[in-house]
Write a structure and sequence with these properties.
globular
């Protein structure tokens, strides 16, 4: 029944409403100029189909037990996290809007058995915000609003925790940012991951989530950076994250959220 709901969501958003379809096609065309228009349309269509699956999976996951979720999301190498946390050190995990990022937080809480502070953007409707926070916190997750996250990290510097960020969102015009070439375009990224890693003196791991089958995923962690960090070296962690994410998108482009307004403004000609 939920698979039917997911297909219905895809059909309505892609074929009937055409919700952000032009934006998605533009994003894919700019990112993959070497592909034919037919190949670009196929990526966008499959990305909307995957989004429908994401909606169905999220609905199922809200009532799923820990063993049921652990069966569907397999973390290949959790020891990259636990070898630090068992020695009293925190770890920063950098993920993206890739595959099923809602299941990712729940599965990490089940597998890693350590408090996970996750950045999130509060919803405007208080009831929806409360519901989402409660669902994401079921297996050890601790959603923290993005505006207060750095402050909370400073408060917890003496504890062994996992700090999780979905780091592919675009900063506002007036926020500090790092510009890099990403998918053939000048692209802005948040620099918060660098700041958090330096404050917590924590190693940083990239989280690669990959689709193994209908409703089944594997998660592979890979090191991005480890302390000690040098001063005044720029946002190197964010740059390495951008390169890892770009590789994953080129590997499976339909699993990224192309309808996101990643390129909402251009890089200024002068700093």
């Amino acid at each position: 029944m939920l698979d039917g709901v997911g297909y219905g969501a895809y059909f309505v958003t892609y074929h009937l409403l055409r919700w952000r379809r032009r934006l998605s096609l533009t994003n894919v065309a700019n990112a993959f100029p070497e592909k034919t228009p037919a190949e670009q349309r196929a990526i966008v269509r499959q990305s909307y189909r995957n989004l429908g699956c994401f909606i169905a999976e999220a609905l199922w996951g809200w009532s799923a037990s820990a063993p049921e979720l652990a069966e569907r999301v397999r973390i290949v190498n959790p020891e990259l996290v636990t070898r630090h946390t068992t020695q009293g050190r925190s770890v920063v995990l950098l993920a993206a809007h890739f595959c099923n990022w809602e299941w990712l937080l729940l599965a990490a809480g089940i597998e890693l058995d350590v408090p996970i502070d996750a950045v999130y953007k509060p919803q405007r409707v208080r009831g929806i915000d409360t519901f989402l926070k409660r669902q994401r916190a079921r297996f050890g997750g601790n959603p923290i609003a993005h505006r207060s996250f750095v402050f909370e990290v400073m408060k917890r510097r003496g504890e062994a925790r996992v700090y999780a960020l979905v780091a592919d969102q675009t900063p506002r015009h007036d926020e500090e940012k790092h510009w890099t070439t990403f998918l053939e375009q000048d692209t802005a990224f948040h620099v918060g991951a660098d700041k958090i890693a330096r404050i917590a003196k924590a190693p940083v791991l990239y989280v690669a989530m990959r689709r193994e089958g209908p409703g089944r995923y594997s998660v592979e962690l890979s090191p991005l950076a480890e302390p000690p960090y040098e001063r005044d070296t720029g946002p190197q962690i964010v740059e390495r994250y951008a390169r890892k994410l770009e590789d994953e998108i080129r590997r499976s482009p339909a699993d990224w959220l192309w309808l996101n307004r990643k390129w909402k403004y251009r890089k200024p000609l002068y700093a």
